[in-house]
Each structure stands twice: as C-alpha cells, then as structure tokens.
Design brief:
The complex is a heterodimer of chains A (about 260) and B (about 280).
Chain A (H helix, E strand, L loop, with lengths): L6 H25 L16 H6 L3 H34 L8 H10 L2 H15 L4 H26 L3 H9 L4 H12 L1 H17 L15 H11 L3 H24 L8
Helix pairs in contact in A: 1-11, 3-6, 3-9, 3-10, 4-6, 5-6, 6-9, 7-8, 9-11
Chain B lengths: L2 H32 L7 H8 L1 H33 L3 H16 L2 H12 L4 H8 L13 H25 L3 H9 L4 H29 L3 H7 L6 H11 L3 H29 L5
Helix pairs in contact in B: 1-12, 3-7, 3-9, 4-7, 5-7, 5-10, 7-9, 7-10, 8-9, 9-12, 11-12
The chains are: A mainly alpha (about 260), B mainly alpha (about 280).
C-alpha cells in the first residue's frame, strides 16, 4: 500500500526548492550580465566579470590565502583529529565518554565568541602573528568535522583485522598505516573535504583574525560589497559555487551524499 | 605500553588544542567581564540596565525564534515529502538541499542583497508589473534579516529531518490508518512523537546558529538591525570596548548553552528512548 502525499505538501515542496535554488540562479544570471550593475535576468551575456576578478589583486591575493589556509588548517586538524578519533573508536572503554563532547566544543561555543577570544588572547595578549592565530582558529573550528566523520568510518571498521596484523608481528604504527588507514580512506577524504569547505567559507572566526596584511576571500567579499555593487562579486560567488559542486562530487563518490542526512 | 596510556597519548594533541586555544581564551574572555573596578558584576548590571543593549538582545532572540519556527515548519513539510519520494528523485532533492548548505554564508546573504535591494530584482519586478510606483525599502529591516536567515537554515532542517522521517516505517502509519486513525491523528500520535528528537536537534541548530550569526545581520540588517553578533564585533573592533564586547560574548555563550541543555532535557523527557 502506498500512501498518497497530500497535493498541498507537494506544492509546498516545489516552492521550497524554488526558494532554495532561485537566489543562486539569480547570482549566476547577474554574473553574466553585460551591465555595470547587478541585474536579473541578465541583459546581454558576457564573461567580462569573470576576467575582471583577476584584475582585482585583493581578490586574487585573498583567494590564494583562503585556499592555503583551508588546506593547512584542515591538514593540521586531521593530523590532530585522526589519532583522537582512532583512540576513541579503538579504546572505547579506556577513555571517558565525555571526551566526545570536548571535541564538539568548537561547534557548541559560538564561533564569533571564539574568534573574539582568540583575537583578544592570542593576537593581542601573546603577540602571536595574526596569520598563525588564523590558522589555529581554522584548525579548531574544523576539528569536530575531522573527528566525527573519521570517527564514523572507524566505528564501522573491524579492529580485529588490525589485531591480526599486530599478532603476526606487524609493528603497531605500520599496522595503522597499512591496515587501518586504507580502510577508512573514504571517511578521511570526506572529512577533509567537508572541513575544507567549512574553513573556506568561514566568516565569524576570520573577521577577527584578519587585518591589513592578511585577509581571506569571504572577508574581502564582505568589504567589497559595502563599497561596490558590481557583477564582479556575483562572478566570485559563482566560482565559489563551482568549488561547492566539486566538494559535493567528492563526498558523493566517497561516503555518498546521504551520509549528510545521518 | 598499556592500552589506557596509548589511548590518552593519541587523544592528547586534540585535547590540548581544544583546551589551550578554546578553553583558555574563552575563560579569559569571561574573566575580563568580572574584572571591572566598579565591582565584579558591574558590567552585567550595565548590560541589563542599558535600553540599547537589551533591545539588541531581544531583537536577536526574536529573530532567532521566528527563524527557527519558520524553518522548522518549512523543513518538516519538505523533509516529509522528500523522505517519501522514490530513490532517484529523493537523491536529486537531497543534492538540491546540500548545494546551498555547502555554499558560503556570504554568497547566500549576497543573493538576498541583490534580490531585496532598492534597485533590486524584486523592486524592479514589482514596478514593471505595476504593483508599486516607488521602490520599497526592504533591506535593513527585521524582515530582510529573517528571510535570509530562513534561507540559510532551511536546508539544514531538511537534511536533519529527512534521516529521521525515513526511519519511520511506512507500516507504522499504515497500521494506524487501518486501525481507523484519521491522517491528523496518525500524524499527531505516531509521526510526531517519533520525529521529536530530530525536530529538537534541528531547532536547536537553527536557533543557536541564527542567534550567533554575524555575516547575515551585517549585510542585510546593518547598523539599524544590530544583532548580538554584529554588536559584539562593533564593540570589539570599532569602539575597542573589550570589556563590553566580552560581556556580550558571555551573554551569547550563556544563552546558547542554556538552550542546548534545556532542549536536550526536553528531548529526553518527550522521548525517553532517545537517551
């Protein structure tokens, strides 16, 4: 027996998805418009605004910074998070249960409070270079993703395989790299990519830890929007949507996008 | 080496990262609020006695609450339909919800700037069809902030609920119906109780997320619709009143953590199985 879905609900669902995707279509359209102001539907088509991105050094510079920051912050967070996730999955009884909550603290504490506190303590209090504080901040906010996504992979890993390798004389470290790691590859890739996009899009931490010398793309976009209102911002947004598509493709191929509904 | 020691050694770097770079700085921010020469609680007295600061706090609560209610309503109905779609359509719809979710908050807020602006798409459209003569000022209002926030959080709500609603077997609702329950009764007595844990998780995420947001109120609310996040930034980086900023930060943490704690208690009460 198949229950029918009320037609009103179907209409509502269609409207919801129009609401969700419409604004993004508007951005794509206005990025292609042959006008000096933002308009939709586009009037005339041009790719001028895309090439214009690379004329504005503030954008090219911050794009580089954002990309490197996301890679470095995520890598750092992975190097620290994977051992923790492994310890929690492998030695469940040895570690207190509340430890899992410690690693989600970066999500629980409002990001803007964390950004402010890092600025106040690290950059201002201890005179840490702002770029270093920025890196630490990003590693911190993506830690919950790395620990949890990798953790989810580890929870479905059968540790007796690793035990078998160790009992046959394989050193523990080698067993981890040759037995465990290949089996949780999907989790690591998905965790990395989700952490990467979180870092790439971050505003609340970065807003406090950027300055005249160091800035990230989202912060530069915010600043640009307050002064100019030309289609260049729309074209940068389209590029960022391209990154989103790439990220989704990777998650789909590794864990499957339905992973995100769990 | 014992397993216990090995476990702690492996977890230590992550514990240290959180403790040194989150625990200590946030505690230092709290400490700042008690260090006022006029007495330990004077900053809080100043906060709660200030008409302006209280307006910002209430506005933020209101925006977060309205955003949560709308997002829950839209998210629930949509997730219900998505969960009941055949495989291929379901995956497509999930992709359509994930895409905006993974697109940055700046980009998504910017879209509403383009739509709601004075020379924006909505105004131009309304003028073209003759509905209005003069462009409406829709930006920098509470409404514009709420619309953009709902836009931000509906995908999150859908994705949280699809998983939960999928877990409600079709047999359950069929059984209720065959025993004579009306669709409304089935919904109230079967579906809703099972969906409550997911609803609460989603609602908490939306409420705390919108309560502490920065980019959206900055772009769509501006100075006129200042919220806690933008207020904190303004105090810290524009007027350099770090004690005031720390007080705002502390209030934000207390509101967020209280919400999380109360709601997880409520969830446990409504559904003892949820643990």
């Amino acid at each position: 027996m198949k229950t029918r879905i009320h037609p009103v609900l179907i209409v509502l669902t269609v409207l919801t998805f129009l609401f969700l995707l419409g604004p993004l279509v508007v951005i794509i359209g206005s990025a292609l418009s042959d006008t000096t102001y933002l308009t939709f539907p586009p009037q005339g088509l041009t790719l001028h605004w895309f090439t214009n991105i690379f004329e504005i050094s503030a954008f090219t510079r911050t794009m580089g910074t954002s990309f490197m920051l996301a890679v470095a912050g995520t890598t750092l967070s992975m190097l620290i998070g994977i051992p923790a996730a492994y310890a929690m999955a492998r030695y469940r009884i040895e570690l207190p249960a509340f430890l899992g909550n410690v690693f989600v603290l970066p999500i629980l504490i409002p990001e803007i409070v964390l950004g402010f506190s890092l600025m106040k303590s690290l950059a201002s209090g201890f005179g840490l270079p702002i770029s270093l504080a920025l890196l630490v901040g990003h590693a911190l906010i993506v830690l919950p993703y790395t620990v949890r996504v990798v953790g989810a992979s580890l929870n479905s890993f059968d540790f007796s395989i690793e035990e078998a390798a160790v009992s046959l004389g394989c050193p523990r470290i080698k067993a981890f790299f040759t037995v465990v790691l290949p089996n949780i590859r999907a989790g690591i890739i998905a965790g990395f990519i989700l952490a990467f996009i979180t870092s790439l899009n971050d505003v609340s931490i970065s807003i406090f830890l950027t300055g005249p010398g160091v800035s990230t793309l989202p912060i530069q976009l915010l600043a640009h929007m307050e002064q100019f209102f030309d289609p260049t911002i729309a074209s940068v947004s389209v590029l960022l949507m391209g990154v989103t598509v790439a990220v989704m493709a990777v998650v789909e191929r590794t864990l499957g996008l339905t992973f995100l509904t769990k | 080496m014992s397993n216990r020691l090995r476990a702690w050694l492996l977890a230590t770097p992550a514990i240290l990262l959180v403790f040194i770079f989150l625990g200590l700085p946030v505690l230092a921010t709290f400490a700042t609020t008690f260090g006022d020469p006029k007495g330990p609680f004077s900053t809080y007295a100043a906060f709660f006695n200030s008409r302006f600061r209280m307006t910002v706090l209430w506005r933020t609560m209101e925006v977060a609450l309205v955003t949560t209610i709308i997002s829950v309503a839209i998210g629930f109905c949509t997730a219900w339909v998505v969960a009941r779609m055949p495989g291929r359509i379901k995956s497509l719809l999930i992709i359509a919800a994930v895409f905006p979710l993974l697109t940055g908050v700046v980009v998504r807020s910017f879209a509403w700037l383009v739509i709601l602006g004075k020379n924006g798409i909505l105004n131009n459209f309304l003028i073209k069809i003759g509905a209005i003569a003069e462009p409406l000022s829709m930006l920098y209002t509470q409404g514009s902030v709420i619309v953009a926030m709902v836009y931000l959080f509906v995908p999150l709500m859908i994705l949280t609920l699809v998983g939960v609603l999928e877990g409600i077997p079709q047999d359950m609702t069929d059984a209720a119906a065959s025993l004579g329950a009306t669709p409304a009764a089935t919904f109230r007595q079967v579906v809703l109780p099972m969906a409550v844990p997911g609803l609460i998780v989603g609602a908490v995420l939306v409420f705390t997320g919108s309560f502490t947001s920065y980019a959206t109120p900055q772009l769509l609310g501006g100075e006129r619709q200042m919220m806690m996040g933008t207020f904190l930034y303004q105090r810290a980086m524009v007027t350099f009143d770090w004690v005031g900023a720390s007080t705002i930060a502390a209030v934000m943490v207390v509101v967020t953590l209280t919400t999380v704690l109360i709601m997880s208690k409520v969830a446990r009460k409504l559904n003892p199985m949820a643990g």
